[in-house]
């Protein structure tokens, strides 16, 4: 997800069939030793279907060219904010076949799972962080690290109690919006779920202090 937040260039290596241009002239060259038979060529041939009648038909014929598998390194330009399903196309970089124009090589973007952030609704991000019970009750001013390393401030003012699993919305800290031309115009929002860590045990003094601070509420049972 880091690459689609900041933008990135990634190198990939592919192996594809190519038509050897040297075999026809010098088939005994060192680089041609690994070359083999190419797929049949598709050519238009004239066939007689009756007295004085001829038709043009496609027909597979053995190729006199030689082919080999070749490693090629490509560089993928991943733009900021690219979505799952978007494609990066390399024209005419598909497998070669004698007598035909190679097809395109197409890479489809698929997001790998991130340990901390989840992308949703296109450009929003969702994550979670843990805070101690003391901060949930008294407020906090803390930071968390974003995808590119910059710090995001999380604030809960004193007097406001942070509820367990409360979600804090931080405007403009989501994914960049991808626009035509490779730029970006805006960012989505970041939603942070606050997981409150409760103590597993309490001392007797702590129990007494809490009992004094939070007297039992008289809650009427509903019928």
Characterization of the model:
This protein has helices at 2-6, 133-138, 204-213, and strands spanning 8-19, 36-37, 41-50, 53-61, 66-78, 87-90, 105-108, 118-120, 124-132, 140-145, 151-156, 166-170, 176-178, 184-187, 190-197. With 223 residues, it is mostly beta strands. It has two domains: 1-109, Urease metallochaperone UreE, N-terminal domain (HSP40/DNAj peptide-binding domain, Sandwich); 117-213, Urease metallochaperone UreE, N-terminal domain (HSP40/DNAj peptide-binding domain), CATH 2.60.260.20. The chain has a four-stranded mixed sheet with strand order 8-9-15-12. The chain has a three-stranded antiparallel sheet with strand order 1-5-2. The longest helix has 10 residues, at 204-213. The mean pLDDT is 88.
């Amino acid at each position: 997800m880091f690459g689609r937040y900041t933008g990135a260039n990634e190198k990939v290596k592919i192996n594809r069939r190519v038509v050897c241009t040297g075999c026809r002239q010098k088939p005994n060259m060192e680089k041609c030793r690994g070359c083999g038979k190419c797929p049949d060529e598709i050519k238009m041939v004239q066939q007689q279907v009756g007295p004085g009648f001829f038709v043009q038909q496609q027909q597979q014929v053995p190729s006199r060219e030689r082919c080999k598998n070749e490693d090629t390194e490509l560089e993928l330009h991943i733009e900021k904010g690219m979505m799952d399903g978007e494609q990066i196309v390399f024209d005419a970089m598909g497998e070669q076949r004698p007598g035909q124009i190679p097809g395109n090589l197409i890479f489809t973007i698929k997001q790998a799972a991130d340990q901390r952030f989840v992308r949703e609704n296109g450009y929003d991000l969702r994550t979670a962080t843990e805070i101690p019970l003391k901060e949930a009750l008294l407020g906090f001013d803390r930071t968390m690290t974003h995808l590119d390393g910059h710090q995001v401030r999380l604030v809960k003012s004193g007097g406001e109690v942070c509820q367990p699993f409360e979600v804090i919305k931080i405007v403009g800290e989501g994914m960049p919006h991808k626009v035509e031309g490779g730029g970006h115009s805006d960012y989505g929002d970041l939603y942070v779920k606050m997981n409150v860590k409760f103590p597993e045990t309490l001392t007797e003094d702590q129990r007494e202090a809490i009992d004094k601070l939070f007297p039992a509420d008289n809650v009427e049972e509903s019928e």
